[in-house]
Amino acid sequence: MRIRSVIGAVLAAATAASVASAQNSPPPAAPEAVSPCTDLPESDCTTTSGCVWLPGYRVATGATVNGYCRPAPKPLTARRGPGASTPKDPAQ
């Protein structure tokens, strides 16, 4: 009987500690939205607006990376934000 009461006390303390730490932690981040480009075959990717196909390649170790579909990159002006200046061409 004594072992059960000790185990019960330990479990109660652990539960109270985890509840207290959960109350002090920041809320979890929102999950990222799943891209419509995820897991599309090449034929569907090239016809889907906002998606680009990246071809497969071989790395130096000899492993092959298969081609895949991903969201198209945003235009440079959209990535820089409002009021950002464009870099000057060093050739000029």
Number of helices: 3
The low-confidence runs, each spanning 5 or more residues with pLDDT under 50, are: none
Share of β-strand residues = 5-15%
Strand arrangement, largest sheet?
Answer: 1-4
Any overview of this molecule?
- The chain is an alpha+beta fold and 92 residues long.
- 37% of the residues lie in helices and 13% in strands.
- It has 3 helices and 4 strands; from the N terminus they run H-H-E-E-E-E-H.
- The strands form 2 sheets. It has a two-stranded antiparallel ribbon with strand order 1-4.
- The radius of gyration is 26 Å and the shape is elongated.
Descriptors:
3 helices; 92 residues; 4 strands; two-stranded antiparallel sheet; alpha+beta
Give the helices and strands, then pairings:
Blueprint lengths: L1 H23 L17 H6 L3 E4 L2 E2 L5 E2 L2 E4 L4 H5 L12
Antiparallel strand pairs: 1-4, 2-3
Task: Write a brief caption for the model.
The chain is an alpha+beta fold. It has 3 helices and 4 strands; from the N terminus they run H-H-E-E-E-E-H.
